[in-house]
Design goal:
This protein is mostly helical and 403 residues long. The chain has helices at 2-6, 9-32, 38-50, 54-91, 96-124, 134-144, 166-206, 223-233, 249-274, 282-402; strands at 151-155, 159-164, 241-245. Strands 1-2-3 form a 3-stranded antiparallel beta sheet.
């Protein structure tokens, strides 16, 4: 009877012990997962270790399973959120075509603005340009004031060479370069104002592209060096000269002889008509030396007038030649200075575009690196959550098997 009475209870006791052992393992897992407060864990331990009541074990298993199920739902929600975030990151990879379109749009805008500002700057220089401009008037006024006294005379064997005085030519060069440099300074100021306006417009556009002026170093223009290059290319034409015939004492005797011959010829013709011989007149013969001397004396007056007319004619020719040569030099000067103005604005635009390209490239690389790090982190987090869900599923399955 003892055997028959104990044999049916033995399998039931073994199941209860096994269930209690499984419940204890499940309790330790829940403690490891921080699903229980210390007081709760102590209460459940007393229920498991204090008795082998199957109902108590089932109750504990049910409570632990519920806690595991709640934890699984939370972890699963985090898993779904992580998957959605990873998909969003994967879908927001930088588009090289988009960056290229932004760069091209900026390039077009900067070039258009640079052309507009260049035209405005050149227009502001119109008062300096052309035949009626300040540069031309300042230079040409000196040419109009050229006089015979501004030329030095060098005597050769048969002629006089009149060369523009080094003092006058030096003054012309100095005045030309002074006025040209003043024009250059005005052009440099206009280009600096244009560059400032170009930079302001550029950074106003860049606000929408998520990069600001921080770290931007403006392009430095060495105006003194630029002026030195332009000055070295200028050739102010001041090597002008003309020649005069050289006449000495013998030429004056010739003038007296010419007048004497003219008087004698005239008397001969009159005598032939009137019928008298002037050579037999003592008064006329005595007057002939006087005529010779008057002819010599007259040469002083006549030659002075002739020289004045000749010099005035040569000065007019030289002024025309200087105007022509200086006009060509003025055109070259204006072209060189305006080229410097346009170059300063154009180079500033290129510098801004290089800065924009660098910022966009660095921003794209930074975003790509951040996204790569984020994807790596999300994938690691996703794997951990998946492992945690599988572990919770296993624990939940064991908890349900206890009941």
């Amino acid at each position: 009877m003892a055997l028959t009475s104990s044999s049916p209870s033995a399998p039931g006791a073994d199941r209860t012990v096994a269930a209690a052992s499984a419940a204890k393992d499940l309790l330790r897992e829940c403690q490891g997962l921080s699903l229980l407060q210390p007081a709760q864990a102590d209460h459940l331990q007393r229920m498991l270790f204090g008795t082998l009541d199957e109902a108590a074990i089932t109750c504990v298993a049910a409570d632990l399973s519920q806690r595991i199920a709640d934890k699984r739902r939370v972890v699963n929600l985090r898993l779904l959120a992580t998957q959605a975030e990873l998909e969003a990151v994967e879908s927001t990879r930088p588009d090289p075509g988009s960056v290229r379109n932004i760069t091209e749009g900026l390039r077009s805008a900067v070039e258009s603005k640079a052309d507009e500002l260049t035209a405005t700057a050149q227009s502001s220089m119109s008062g300096w340009l052309g035949a009626r401009g300040k540069l031309s008037q300042a230079v040409m006024s000196n040419v109009e004031q050229l006089r015979a006294a501004d030329f030095e005379i060098e005597a050769s064997y048969s002629r006089l060479i009149c060369t523009l005085s080094p003092r006058v030519s030096s003054d012309l060069k100095i005045k030309y370069l002074q006025n040209a440099k003043e024009f250059f300074r005005a052009a440099s100021k206009a280009s600096e104002e244009a560059v400032a306006a170009l930079e302001a417009d550029f950074f106003a556009r860049c606000k929408t592209l998520n990069f600001e002026q921080g770290g931007y170093a403006p392009l430095q223009v060495d105006n003194e060096r630029a002026w030195g290059v332009i000055k070295g290319q200028l050739e102010v034409p001041v090597d002008f000269k003309f020649e005069q015939p050289k006449r000495g004492f013998l030429n004056r005797l010739g003038e007296g002889k010419q007048m004497l011959s003219t008087v004698m010829m005239s008397l001969t013709l009159v005598g032939m008509v009137a019928g008298f011989q002037w050579r037999k007149s003592t008064e006329i013969l005595y007057a002939l030396p006087v005529v010779f001397i008057v002819g010599i004396a007259y040469s002083f007056y006549a030659w002075k007038k002739e020289d004045e007319e000749y010099i005035n004619k040569e000065l007019e020719r030289i002024r025309e030649s200087m105007n022509r040569d200086l006009s060509r030099t003025l055109s070259e000067t204006e072209r060189a200075i305006l080229t410097h103005l346009r170059s300063a604005i154009t180079n500033a635009g290129k510098h801004l575009l290089q800065y924009a390209d660098q910022q966009l490239r660095e921003g794209t690389n930074r975003e790509a690196n951040e996204n790569a790090d984020r994807r790596t982190r999300l994938r690691d987090q996703l794997r951990r959550l998946e492992n945690e869900v599988r572990s919770l599923d296993s624990s939940l399955q064991r908890g349900r098997s206890i009941r």
